[in-house]
Amino acid sequence: MSTESDRLNRKLAVVLPALHSAADVFMEHPNPRGVYVEYLWTVYWIVRASVPLMQTALAEAEKLCDRDPVAKGLMAYLPGHVEEEMHHDEWLLEDVERLGMDRKVVTGRAPSATIASLVGPQYYWIKHTHPVALMGYIAVLEGNPPVATAIDRLIERTGFPPEAFRTLTEHSALDAHHFDEFNQALDALPLTPDQSALVGVSAMHTVASIARLFDEIVESVAARPYRRSTSPAADMTGVD
Amino acid sequence: MDAGSMDPQETQAALDQLAEELAGSDFRAALTKDPTGAATAAGINVDTLPDGLLGTLGLMSDEELKIVARVQQSFKGSIGDAVRVAILF
Fold first, then answer.
1. What fold, for A4-220?
2. CB contact under 8 A, A14 and B80
């Protein structure tokens, strides 16, 4: 008999190629420095929301836990994961600063509608359906860690210092462990069929939204010929 | 998801047709009841589809299938492909 995590991962395997395809285009963009800086901005606003999302889910689960075993199960898993994800938005900003840029380049630019449409539905489902929806979102973010060879290629293509890739490097090392924990937690939840479908919808919506974000990163950065500028800021403005 | 030794063009044609059918609510409803029967009735050559794909689609709710259909419309030609590369989130 298959487990809940098996079924979720089978569902995700149907749509993940769309995300891999979008990431391929990102990786081979002719302006790797430009797309990496745009990537940092995008991921900052996603990671910035991770802990608040989980705290919101925890608060909703707490309201339900006396009569809802799934909510009770979330209360056993989420606090530890909040701890694990704490301050990762700060890692992103430190990566930006290691590129010689002011963190306000990222924090001072509001997130796009597509970023909001990735994160926003989670608040809706948590508040108005069931906090277990967030497990679909976490499945995608924890289940698809950066791969070391891809990070190395990005470092090589950008010519940026490896120290400016801490967020990717750390997640590459940590997420496999986090995903094992996640799968165990998901499999321990006595989900109803409707809750299982909600987790699936949340997960597949997350995949589609992240694929769209990769497309937007690629589209928003001018396809200038690759050059190793001495000034990261110049790669954003096009002026050395 | 592995189409084994099938002709890749035949597999892709079947995947494209499946993706097109997923946009229809009647097909999605039939798929959740009998994935192979629904696909066969729609004229899809199910023998050329990647192993397990229909069974996986049969596990999905209508809303999940709608997302699969939307993803396929937005990112043509990617349904059921083998997982290939690293991603960065």
1. Heme Oxygenase; Chain A (1.20.910)
2. yes
